[in-house]
Design a protein that fits this description.
heterodimer; A: about 800 residues; alpha+beta; six-stranded antiparallel sheet; 19 helices; B: alpha+beta; seven-stranded mixed sheet
Chain lengths: ~800, ~350
Amino acid sequence: MKVSLNWLKDYLDVSGTAEEISDTLTALGLEASYEITGKSFTGIVLGKVIECGPHENADKLSVCEVDIGDEENYTIVCGAPNVKSGIHVPVAKVGATLNNGDFKIKQAKLRGVESSGMICSERELAISDEHEGIMILDTKAEIGTPIEEILTFKEDTLFEIDLTPNRGDCLSHLGVARELGIGAGADVKRRAVDLIESANSTSNEIKVSIADSDACPRYAARVVTGVKVRPSPQWLVDRLVSIGQSSINNIVDAANYVLMDSGHPMHTFDLDNISGNEINVRYAKKGEKLTTLDNEKRDLKDFHLLICDGDKPIALAGIMGGINSEINDGTTNILIESAYFSPTVVRKGAKVLDLSTEASRRFERDTDMDGIIPAINQLAALIVEVAGGEICKGVVDEYPAEKMQRTIDFSIEKCEALLGTHIPKDKIENIFVSLQITHTKQNGSFQCIIPSFRNDLEREVDLYEEVARVIGYDNIPSSAQFTGSYNSFVEDDQKLDSLLRTQLQAIGFHEHYSNSLQHEKDTLHFAGGDAVQLKNPLSQDMAFIRNSITPGLLMAASYNEKRQEKGFKLFEIGAIHNQSKKSATGTNEKFHLGLLWYGEAQSHWRSYEYRDLFRCKGEISQMLQSVGIANVSFKIGNESGFQISLKIYSGKTQIGKVGIPDSKILQQYNLKVNPTVCDLSLHNLRELWQNQKLVYSPPPAFPSMSRDIALQVARDLPAEDLLKTIQKEGGYTLKNISLFDVYQSDEVGDNNKSLAFSLKFQSETTTLTDTEVDADVEKILNSLNKAHGATQR
Amino acid sequence: VSITDQIQKVRAEFSSDLESLSSENGALDQIRIKYLGRKGLVASLFVQMGTVAADERPKMGQVLNELKSDITAEIDGISSTVSDSSKSATPHIDYTLPGDPIPVGSIHPLTQVMEEIKSIFLRLGFSIAYGPEIDTDFYNFEALNIPKHHPARDMQDTFYITDNVLLRTHTSDTQIHFMENHEPPVRIIAPGRVYRNEDVSVRSYCLFHQIEGLYVDSKVTFAELKGTLDYFARELFGQNVKTRFRPSYFPFTEPSAEMDVSCIFCKGKGCGICKKTGWLEILGCGMVDPEVYKSVNYGPEKWTGFAFGMGIERMAMLKYGIQDIRLFYSGDVRFLRQF
């Protein structure tokens, strides 16, 4: 909301710089910034044209000697027809700025003559649009005087206030002035309204009935007859323009002015278009429609509150008037409405129509029940002032549900306990006075009567805040020590995540955060399409909540591929969601860890890292082992969306999958290079991590023995099968198996391959002999031969 | 052929095998198997020891053992100095060649800032709690004293899944979840992802991350709130930073405040980043509103507490001078590598 300092001065003698006022408002909870309007220049002084002669090379230019109070005179080239010697003029010196700093005066050469400055017109000083000639000043002021000391400017300071929704009472100059008054310890002064009424009684012109006193507990009406609709007087236009409003006509402007001035939203009707001389406030009927002032035909719901005349709706209560009763150029008789509408009713009605107006904004934030009559009187008087006419006698004031004064008990002790500081009793009393809170002492407490415009003060704790903000939050000392209880500690069940992050960083992964709002097509491949859908998405691209961690990584891979990145590794830890009938939200949240390998390792003079699925398997195992999750194994899987996929296990628990997406996926994500992706369930990992027990065993005291075996087997025999057999037959002394060579060639035959294993044997209780180890190897070889037809090479 | 000849022959063959040793991986191991394997040439010579005359055996055994140890030493020597990829035993190696470019990864700037903030509050005795990203209207609004048809709902544009289920707009929902399941004293921070139905631009995104704080006990004061957050600001932004508290409005706190810190770029003098005010808005906070205690069945007379919440993206943008919020979610490795 924009607030003009000149306007505020109607209510209060405001002192201090714009910055100080702005700080005062901010410290009171009205976050303010400001800009100074009016004077738009710097460095303009009063000068006198000493000599004026023609320019040698230009007919329309004159060359002037100008005295601006410096030691020497300046030569200034001027193009104005009215320049002559002896006149006083505003002179922009070299270095002066115009147009709020956008235009800077420089030394210049004009058709061969050096010019040191500029003689200004009114338009150049933003005083008026006059630019036919320079401004000639009739003044006795000393030459060299800054021009702003001679001319009067409509200088103003405009405050932009970012108002919190609880402070509807500050949506006006009166409201802001009241707050400034608190800071300054001064009361606002309201001008008396000069109200002259005719003999004709308002009740002869209009009758008001209210069908629902909860929605509309008060409705006041006044009638002004014989007005003339025309443009507003200049002062009114200026006021509205100063805060960025535009002028429409004198009636509309008057209503807008009072709204911005004292804050109560009112509406003006053309009385001659109100049939039956009656106003009925009621809820809309089913299927009822109203064309509002913005020329939109509105379909109404049964919770829309309407202002109706004898036979039709004429306004959406508290939101917008109807076009059928609008003030037009021919309007002569006016009905003014000043009412109280329930905040909830107005908000509900406005929200469903997606319509927010100056009026609805204020009603939603609650309005001052006691402000209704002063406001209607102010507007009636202003209309007569700017549009002529006569005010009918009296207000028709239908007030079926009178609002009670609100009283709150206030305990100093409790206030001090909450704020943690001591506040002298007289200080609290002063604060109440400044807030217009009437208070009476009762033992150790106060009974406070809340002014009608402060609808936000409902409970004792609200008064604590008032006390705190008037004292100033910065004047409440910070406590010097912290207190706490051992009983408040709870365990963090996501501790594992940061260990994984550290390990992944160490092995070259960059952490990615992807948008969890995705297109439907992103939710179909990796999880099966039961993703959660948004009712009001920003776009179709963001209409679903991700149900897999993988698409976000693929999108990032594609993004980087387009930016010529050749090789990178990414990971993301995040929540995914699926539909679930079991939960209160109908959704199920799970945390996943996603990994992505893209492209080749950086090229180097020697190869140091193969980037293929085997490397990925290794890095997955390494990462998991680094956090103590051991016993990791992989099984061939056939996941949808993958050309090759492996299931990942720790012991018997499946913890995820890794694989290479198929060509359809590549196409969808616009990828040329095939990445490898891995998806791990963090819930499973967290559980395994929390349940792991580190068991120590002493380092072996006896030497180990190694044996290498080279096997020839059928080419399609999975190595995993051989490993399992070796493991099983090796017994407890077999401590390690490493597959160190895989060999396929003519030598071993087209259908065969050769695998070489190194086996390490060790006993905890004795030194193994060659004979024992050879016997074990023999046993292994026999079983391999029996189970897999493996022969030794 | 005498065993001595055979030994000579094996030695010669071994030398020539080493001469023609290929750079292929495993080539050296094949030689090792060929000579030293269980069925290797050396082993087969040992087998023939049985045919040697008994008196010659010790000598022959010595010769054979020499052969075995020579071959072993030669192979071990090669594999330990240059690896089997090089065939020369004493190659010229250029040690100025660059080392292997082992890439280092990065932890996302948002995680880093989040961890830093977490660590400060963990020092102050706070524990960590979590809330769901998809929540009901009750936890996100109603229980936090934001009834339906309240203008405060305009402060947060919401994504809905059904009329009653939504993507949480703040981590404050965790306050309610936690208090429902724990009796006071409560001292938690709750990090997490939150969503706003706002157009994506340089300054705003449809989601961001927050850290919520909540402390409820029998005698918590506004002065403690200030003390805690003063300490936090000094730890995060430096010991010289000043704080400013000014009144604000959140339906779930009363009194409510915004905390500003003196601008870390211009030291409070006023610059483009602080919009010439000298202050940076950092977080919202306040004393827990009694209505919130009612929602979780805490006795409002018995407990007092404070709560606060801050945006991680804003902190990270300030800390690193990042101008475009969308970079955080782009996955651009040119961005990520810098952290």
